[in-house]
Amino acid sequence: MNDLFQTFVAGLRLGCIYGLVALGYTMVYGVLRFINFAHGDIVMVGAWLCFIVARAMHWTGFTAHPPLYAAAFVLLISMTACALLGWLTERLAYRPLRRAPRLNVLIAAIGVSLFIENAGQLRFLFGTEPQAMPSLLPRAQTALITLLGVRITVLDVVIGLLAVGLMIALDILVFRTRLGLAMRAVAFDDAAAALTGVPVNRVVGMTFIIGSALAAAGGFIFATEYHNLQQPAEMSWILLGLKAFVAAVVGGIGNIRGAMVGGLLLALLEQFGGRYVSNDLRDVYVFAILILVLLVKPGGIMGAQVTEKV
Amino acid sequence: MALLTIRNLCVHYGAIQALHGVDLEVQEGQIVALLGSNGAGKTTTLRAISGLLKPSAGDIVFDGQSMVGLPPELIVKRGIAHVPEGRGIFSNLTVEENLRLGAYIRTDTAAVAADREWVFELFPRLQERLGQNAGTLSGGEQRMLSMARALLSRPRLLLLDEPSLGLAPQLVQAIFATIRRISQDPARRTTILLVEQNAHMALATAAYGYILATGQIKTHAPAGELANSDEVRKAYLGVV
Ligand SMILES: Nc1ncnc2c1ncn2[C@@H]1O[C@H](COP(=O)(O)OP(=O)(O)O)[C@@H](O)[C@H]1O
Ligand SMILES: [Mg+2]
Fold first, then answer.
1. Ligand 1 within 6 A of B42 CB?
2. DSSP letters along B130-195, please?
């Protein structure tokens, strides 16, 4: 029983990351109808920036007993920098191709992805060595409560609140604000949205900014939960991005709530499968469920039931 | 001076030229009909006015200022609202959200509220369906919604692209009656450029008419004259 629960908690941890990253894929697909392959690399940059800022804080001796705002500061810097990076990729690589065939944009996205991975390996950026993330939270590993024999740590709770908080904030933004209304209008038909006075370019830019900031939060959680940062072009980053993308598709690409559900579902599946079936097949479950969903319900779990009439 | 003046408008789709130097004027307060058969270039003309297409030559002057090169969202702000052909609504949004998008550019909340009242007078059905997904409306209701949405930007010039297309005969009558009511509202004085294939109804509603064929204006005259000219009817309007 407590083993089951342990696995469940591990699934929730991973699900926070997949969910946050999947949101960026789904939002960009929603407004521009293309898969931003560089989105996974934003996660990598976000995690590495957390490391760099945290390490700098350690050097200054500031974080021997880091206060909570140290973590908040690291997160904020990483989210801001990634938001800027995401906005730049749209501005420089995708916007000039707005009227080009979709394949061109896809190729550009792969180019951006390779650029970020390789630039990240520069010595004065992240380098080619793996690094260990320093601890950012005081007593992070202290058990807050022990439920069914499973230690729920301070870190777990902080991270859970962060992920859920960001998802709720995004949901409110998309479904309750003027900007969100504009985003949903652009997602449906950008020319028609422009005719109502929606500044389409600015809305697309905001979509990249928000999606990338959420990706950075995913990177932050990844770094603080798992501590091990592989070098920027390492396969594990690509796999992380790919799984989050699968989560977005499973939830219904373009669907905000679907991305969150998909992320959680995928992570639970991966953890339970890894624990009770075979750990070697962890990546296989993810792609098996992708194929299954595409076969049974191509629109995704939360996707539209009926196809749009043209 | 005319509210809208188009001079020598040329538009290309890639290598294909759709408009070959269109000249057209719309006087303030009037309904002007732009007629022509399928493929004549009516939609292209409207899309150029609202900024969705960039002209390859010519000028579009609205209220004394050139609109050429402005993006659509700024042209709406200057006071031109375009109701595109087809359903022209956001079927992923509710009726209420569609209407809110119509007033997206406005900050004068009191006037927006008054305009909403007016729009609900014109289209009472919409008020009953505010919370409903716009995609679930009937074809006629969707057409009403797209007109209502455009009106909520409080346009000085309303561009209507085939508002009667595909509607049942009674609904066609109702839509043209509404177009007259919009034009005659004393508080708003909305000028209308009406694109139609239904030449008979359009000329009965408009004050002035232009006839477009293969991307050129063939003739223009007061609507009554066009409606009574046998030559025009036979050559361009497909009426026998
Ligand atoms: N997106 C497009 N690409 C290429 N040609 C187009 C496009 N849209 C319209 N055309 C062509 O431009 C001409 C005018 O079309 P349009 O303005 O839609 O006519 P109308 O609205 O009067 O039926 C037609 O010959 C049509 O085939
Ligand atoms: Mg047309």
1. yes
2. TTSBGGGS-HHHHHHHHHHHHHTT--SEEEEE-TTTT--HHHHHHHHHHHHHHHH-TTT--EEEEE
Indicate the residue among B97, B125, B154 that finishes a domain. B154
Could you give the ipTM of this predicted complex?
0.92
Tell whether A182 lies on the interface with B, counting CB pairs under 8 A.
yes
Atom 4 of ligand 1: nearest residue by CA position:
B13
Q: For residue range A275-292, list pLDDT tens digits in order.
A: 898 888 888 998 898 899
Note whether A184 contacts B93, CB cutoff 8 Å.
yes
CA dihedral A260, A263, A269, A274 (to 10 degrees): -150
CA distance B213 to B19: 9
**Whole-number CA gyration radius for chain A:** 19
Check whether residue B54 and residue B98 sit in a common domain. no
Residues B123 and B10 in one domain: no
What are B62-115's pLDDT values in tens digits? Answer: 999 999 999 999 999 999 999 999 878 999 999 999 999 999 999 999 999 999
- Compute the distance between CA of residue B112 and CA of residue B109 in angstroms, rounded to an integer: 5
User: Under an 8 A CB cutoff, do B52 and A198 touch?
Assistant: no
Residue B84 near ligand 1, beta carbon < 6 Å: no
- Same domain for B161 and B232? yes
Residue B1 has pLDDT above 80, yes or no: no
What is the H or E stretch that residue A143 is in?
strand A143-147
Q: B15: Cβ below 6 Å to ligand 1? A: no
Using a CB-CB cut-off of 8 Å, the residues of chain B touching A197 are: 73, 76-77, 104-105, 153
The pLDDT tens digits for A13-60 are 999 999 999 999 999 998 888 889 999 999 999 999 999 999 888 777
Picking from B134, B154, B174, the residue at the C-terminal end of a domain is B154
Q: Does B16 share its domain with B121?
A: no
A192:B92 CB<8 A: no
Interchain CB contact of A310 with B (< 8 Å): no
